[in-house]
Amino acid sequence: MDRFAHLEWPFFEPRHAELARAAERWAVENLFYAHDEDEDSVCRHLVKGLGAAGFLAHCAPEDSRFDVRSLALLREVFAFHSGLADFALTMQGLGSGPIVLAGSEAQKRRYVARAAKGEAIAAFALSEPEAGSDAAALSTRALPDGPHYVLDGAKTWISNGGIADFYVVFARTGDEGTKGISAFVVDADAPGLSIEERIEIVAPHPMATLRFEGCRVPRASLLGQEGEGFKLAMRTLDIFRTGVAAAALGFARRALAEALLRARQRKMFGQQLADFQTTQGKLADMATGIDAAALLAYRAAWLRDVKEKRVTREAAMAKMQATEAAQQIVDAAVQICGGLGVKRGHPVERLYREVRALRIYEGATEVQKLIIARDLLKEAG
Predict the structure, then answer these.
(1) Is the pTM here over 0.85, yes or no?
(2) Can you name the residues that pair with 195 across neighbouring β-strands?
(3) Catalytic residues
(4) What is the pLDDT of residue 268?
(5) How far is CA 102 from the centre of its chain?
(6) Which stretch, 143-157, 166-180, 258-272, has highest mean pLDDT?
């Protein structure tokens, strides 16, 4: 089974195939260790390795030009091999993306260049205890005070929390709903910023709750203009949401590969597991789900890259379909693998833990449905 057959689709250019195969070679040589033991040190090592290999330059482009197809292909390849590698790659992009889009030249030189080289770990701090899916409900405040802003509040579910060198923080500078939200880049050692709690989740990766108590940052830390933070967050998510679909594809392709391997190896009642029609039906559904999700994901990436279209609806469709399909595909792989599928450390067991969060972060499935429906209704007039 050729995992890269889709690179012949008209969505891609020859350079994309070259990038995907280069990433695959690097992954085979470097990601045999990169699972969930001591996730902090593994992620630090991954960021340095991905930066040295040049892959992070696609997530944090110093020329400010994102190629979503490249981002998506890298996520698909790395997710196939290691959920933590996919995590390390995408968080460098999500955490530095707002600076790429709205930062000053000085901010880009200080943060984006280091993130692209793997010399600094980035984080995106939007969610709060009472503002997750409803990001506009955030209450962290940033009040001007002479040459500074003073931040007070909490951020939670922050990936790379505790190991990041800098955070892009979204805080309220006004009371006008989404128009009162601004974005700031805050160094991890800023006085008044502390790690309140490290959060352990089902598929371990660095995550924390941040606390801001009289955290003073220079006015030069503001990204873009006051009041543009919410739009900046949404612009960033529009770029990287397609990548969530691609990561789901990587997980799903690995699940199918493991299921095919087990189905051909397992002897039952005088024949192979693969000989049973029930097994064949599962495999057919898995493969079809993967292709359907891939078409949606790479359509969204192509529309943004080539047609330069706003792809909020298409990215939401891709994210929803790919993550929901991947959950079902991984579950089917566990069923085919039987006892091995729930043995700690087996690839399918890891996938079962890793895939679940994809249906929640960067907008839960239910939120994606709202985005799609509202866009349809708006178009219908």
Answers:
(1) yes
(2) 210
(3) 362
(4) 81
(5) 20
(6) 143-157
Q: Are 107 and 60 in contact (CB under 8 A)?
A: no
SS (H, E, C) the chain: CCCCHHHHCCCCCHHHHHHHHHHHHHHHHHCCCCCCCCHHHHHHHHHHHHHHCCHHHHCCCCCCCCCHHHHHHHHHHHHHHCHHHHHHHHHHHHHHHHHHHHCCHHHHHHHHHHHHCCCCCEEEECCECCECCCHHHCCCEEEEECCEEEEEEEEEEEECCCCCCEEEEEEECCCCHHHHEEEEEEECCCCCEEEEEECCCCCCCCEEEEEEEEEEEEHHHEECCCCCHHHHHHHHHHHHHHHHHHHHHHHHHHHHHHHHHHHHHCEECCEEHHHCHHHHHHHHHHHHHHHHHHHHHHHHHHHHHCCCCCCHHHHHHHHHHHHHHHHHHHHHHHHHHHHHHHCCCCHHHHHHHHHHHHHCCCCCHHHHHHHHHHHHHHHHC
Do residues 187 and 112 touch, judged by C-beta distance below 8 A? no
Q: Is the pLDDT of residue 77 over 80?
A: yes
Mean pLDDT computed over 187-204: 94
Q: Are 356 and 327 in contact (CB under 8 A)?
A: yes
The pLDDT of residue 173 is 94
Give me 340's structure tokens: 């091995």
pLDDT of the residue at 35: 64
171 φ, ψ (degrees, to nearest 5) = -140, 160
Question: Distance (Å, rounded) from C-alpha 38 to C-alpha 181?
Answer: 36
Alpha-carbon span 135 to 235, nearest angstrom:
14
Six-digit token string for 12:
């891609």
For residues 104 and 56, what is the distance between their CA atoms, to the nearest angstrom?
20
- Residue found by looking up tokens 């995106």 in the block: 124
